[in-house]
Design brief:
By secondary structure, this protein is mainly alpha-helical. It is built from 6 helices and no strands.
């Protein structure tokens, strides 16, 4: 929990939208793996609100796929969600999904760094004019 709180504070402070978005997915999966109960509903709500506010569709799609897989892992397939998603990615285990989202987070950190560098370059070019 301290680890996720630390990541959350860093992403909030530096406005790292991609990393924060993936952070919700990683934390959600971690709660599913650790507790195996419904304690993750709070994270689902927070993630949904964040994804709606940022408008980054990739996160919303990943969240729906994750919700569908959580249902499968709990032997509660959501036919309505399956109908919405159509053919979707099935993770063989929670750990497989967790590792994939961690890899996505690594790429997100790189994207954030590149965006920060681009912003700095543009600001310095504008100052020179």
């Amino acid at each position: 929990n301290n680890y996720f709180g630390f990541i959350s504070s860093i992403t909030h402070e530096y406005n790292q939208f991609y990393l924060k978005g993936l952070g919700f997915l990683v934390e959600l999966l971690w709660r599913v793996i650790e507790k195996g109960d419904k304690s993750y509903n709070e994270i689902l709500v927070q993630a949904s609100e964040y994804y709606a506010s940022t408008g980054i569709e990739t996160f919303g799609s990943k969240l729906l796929v994750l919700q569908y897989n959580i249902g499968l892992w709990e032997n509660q397939e959501d036919l309505r969600l399956k109908e919405i998603l159509g053919i979707t990615k099935r993770y063989t285990s929670q750990e497989e999904a967790f590792l994939e989202f961690l890899e996505d987070s690594t790429r997100a950190m790189l994207i954030e760094k590149l965006l920060g560098t681009e912003k700095s370059l543009l600001e310095s070019m504008l100052k020179e004019e």
